[in-house]
Specification:
single chain; 114 residues; mainly beta; seven-stranded mixed sheet; four-stranded antiparallel sheet; 11 strands; 54% strand
Length: 114
Amino acid sequence: VQLQASGGGLVQAGGSLRLSCAASRSISRTYTMGWYRQAPGKERELVASVISGRPPNYADSVKGRFTISRDYAKSTVTLQMNSLKPEDTAVYFCNAHYRVIVYWGQGTLVTVSS
């Protein structure tokens, strides 16, 4: 499975961006899909994830600002990012995983200027 992420870019603080991720083939709803990010000099961290039957999971730093949504029929996942802050600057990676099976997208850069 290949994950294709899109939607990154440059935005001013307080602005919004929408990231999208599409899988090359159908992904079972038993998979968790979500977004991670990695800022320069930092470890990759979970931003948000979603799995069927459970509420979305968010990092504390993005709660109330980011919203993750998933289309199970199309095997896509979207991250709506509002009220962006300079500290949100990072490469964002789409992820899908189930037990030991893990897929990563190629990453999309989000830059938030102050």
